[in-house]
C-alpha cells in the first residue's frame, strides 16, 4: 500500500508542477489521468490475484505491484501446510495399513455405538461389510444377546467370549470393548477357536488317559488286595493262576497305552526326514501274518499286492501304520468276515494301501473323529478287543510325516475301507 500512496504523491507533485507551468486545468487533468492509470493497473493486478486464489497450488502471479510482498509469505505458508498435510496423510495411511495387517479385528464406534470403521479381520470375524454397515448401530449388526448385555454395561473390566456360527462353522471370539477419544469406542476381536479346541483336546486327553489307566489299575488293585488279605494256601492253584493271568493282561494293556503314548510323543517332537526306500510289500506281508494270528482262522484274507512299489520313508513308522489298519480290521470284523488288503498304483501314479473289511461299520458322524486320541465309537467293544484307542492317531501322524492322506469310507453294518494314499514324489518303482 506504501507504493500506491507514493505513486499518488508523485502524480500530485507532477500535476502541481504542470499547473504552475502550463496552467491549473492541464495540471488537474494530468493528475486525474495518473489516478485513472493507477486504478487500471491496480484493477489488473487484483484480477490476477483473484484468478490465483482459485487455484492456490500454483505459484502466485509475478509483478503484481504491492501485492508481491503480501502473496509471497502466504504462498510459502501454503506450501508448508500442504507438506504437513501430505506427511500427516502418509502417517495416517501407515496407521491404517498397520491396522489392516493386525491379526486381531478392530472396530471403531461413535458415541451412539454406530459403526465408523473396521479392518478386514473384523469383517471376517463378525461378517461386517463396511460399505453397507457404516453408520448402523452395532446392536443391529451383531445380534447376540450376550454381546448386547456386555456392551450396555457402564464399564468393561474384561473381554467377552462369544461363540458364533458362520456358514456352518463354529467360531470362538474373544471380544473386548474399550472407550477412547471423546465419546468413541473400540472393539478388538480375537479368534481363539484353535486355542479353545486345543484346550478342549488337552482336557479330553487328560481325562481319557486317566480313564483308560483307571480300569486296569482298579483290576490290579482289587486282585492284589484280595491276594494280600487271604492266606497263601486258601486259594486253589487254578484260581490263583486265573487271577495272575488277568493281572498280567491288564498290566500289558497299560504297557501298550504307555508305549503308544511314547510313540505319539516321538512322532510329534521328532523332525520329518526323507528316510530310505522301503519295500512296503514286505511290511504288508508281515502285518498280514500278525493279523492272521490275531484272527485265529476266523476271517478270510484277500490280497492284491504289487511288490514293485516302494516308498521313500521311515520303515518303522510305515510298518506301524500298515499293521494298525490290518489289526483294526480283524478286531472289528465279526467271525467269517472278509478282509481285503491292496497295495497298488492309482491312475495318478500315487501309491495306495487300502484295507477293506465287512465289519460293523462306522456312523458318518463318527468318521471325522476317528483319529482323535482315545476316541472310540463303541467303548465297550474297543476295550474287549484290546485296543488302546491310539492306533489311528498314530497312523494319522505317520502319514502326515510322509505327505500322505488317510481316507475313510464306511457304512454301518456293511463295513469300512481305510486307505493310505502316498504322493507320487515318494513312490519308487522296483524291478520284480
Automatic annotation (TrEMBL):
Entry keyword Hydrolase: no
Function: Member of the two-component regulatory system PhoR/PhoB involved in the phosphate regulon genes expression. PhoR may function as a membrane-associated protein kinase that phosphorylates PhoB in response to environmental signals.
Glycoprotein in keyword set: no
Keywords carried by this UniProt record: ATP-binding, Cell membrane, Kinase, Membrane, Nucleotide-binding, Phosphate transport, Phosphoprotein, Transferase, Transmembrane, Transmembrane helix, Transport, Two-component regulatory system
Main location: membrane
TM annotation in the entry: 5-22, 28-46
Protein name listed in UniProt: Phosphate regulon sensor protein PhoR
Amino acid at each position: 500500500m506504501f507504493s500506491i500512496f507514493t505513486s499518488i504523491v508523485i502524480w500530485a507533485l507532477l500535476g502541481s508542477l504542470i499547473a504552475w507551468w502550463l496552467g491549473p486545468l492541464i495540471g488537474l487533468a494530468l493528475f486525474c489521468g495518473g489516478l485513472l492509470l493507477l486504478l487500471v493497473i491496480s484493477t489488473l493486478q487484483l484480477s490476477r490475484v483473484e484468478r490465483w486464489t482459485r487455484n492456490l497450488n500454483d505459484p502466485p502471479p509475478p509483478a503484481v505491484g504491492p501485492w508481491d510482498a503480501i502473496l509471497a509469505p502466504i504462498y510459502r505458508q501454503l506450501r508448508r501446510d500442504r507438506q504437513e498435510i501430505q506427511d500427516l496423510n502418509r502417517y495416517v495411511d501407515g496407521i491404517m495399513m498397520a491396522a489392516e495387517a493386525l491379526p486381531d479385528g478392530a472396530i471403531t464406534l461413535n458415541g451412539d455405538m454406530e459403526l465408523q470403521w473396521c479392518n478386514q479381520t473384523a469383517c471376517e470375524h463378525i461378517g461386517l461389510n463396511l460399505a453397507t454397515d457404516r453408520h448402523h448401530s452395532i446392536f443391529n449388526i451383531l445380534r447376540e444377546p450376550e454381546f448386547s448385555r456386555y456392551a450396555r454395561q457402564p464399564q468393561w473390566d474384561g473381554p467377552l467370549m462369544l461363540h458364533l456360527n458362520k456358514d456352518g462353522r463354529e467360531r470362538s471370539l474373544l471380544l473386548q470393548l474399550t472407550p477412547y477419544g471423546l465419546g468413541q469406542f473400540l472393539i478388538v476381536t480375537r479368534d481363539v477357536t484353535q486355542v479353545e479346541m486345543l484346550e478342549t483336546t488337552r482336557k479330553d486327553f487328560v481325562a481319557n488317559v486317566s480313564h483308560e489307566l483307571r480300569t486296569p489299575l482298579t483290576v490290579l488293585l482289587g486282585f492284589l488286595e484280595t491276594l494280600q488279605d487271604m492266606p497263601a494256601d486258601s486259594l486253589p492253584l487254578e484260581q490263583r493262576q486265573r487271577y495272575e493271568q488277568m493281572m498280567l493282561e491288564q498290566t500289558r494293556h497299560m504297557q501298550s497305552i504307555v508305549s503308544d503314548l511314547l510313540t505319539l510323543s516321538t512322532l510329534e517332537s521328532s523332525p520329518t526326514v526323507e528316510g530310505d526306500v522301503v519295500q512296503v510289500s514286505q511290511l504288508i506281508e508281515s502285518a498280514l501274518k500278525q493279523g492272521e494270528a490275531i484272527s485265529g482262522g476266523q476271517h478270510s484274507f484277500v490280497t492284491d499286492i504289487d511288490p514293485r512299489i516302494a516308498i521313500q520313508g521311515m520303515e518303522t513308522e510305515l510298518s506301524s501304520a500298515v499293521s494298525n489298519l490290518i489289526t483294526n480290521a480283524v478286531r472289528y470284523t465279526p467271525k467269517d468276515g472278509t478282509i481285503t488288503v491292496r497295495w497298488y498304483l492309482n491312475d495318478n501314479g500315487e501309491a495306495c494301501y487300502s484295507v477293506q473289511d465287512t465289519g460293523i461299520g462306522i456312523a458318518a458322524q463318527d468318521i471325522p473323529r476317528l483319529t482323535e486320541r482315545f476316541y472310540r465309537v463303541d467303548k465297550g467293544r474297543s476295550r474287549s478287543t484290546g485296543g488302546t484307542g491310539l492306533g489311528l492317531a498314530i497312523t494319522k501322524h505317520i502319514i502326515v510325516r510322509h505327505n500322505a492322506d488317510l481316507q475313510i469310507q464306511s457304512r454301518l453294518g456293511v463295513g469300512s475301507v481305510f486307505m493310505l494314499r502316498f504322493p507320487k514324489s515318494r513312490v519308487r518303482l522296483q524291478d520284480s
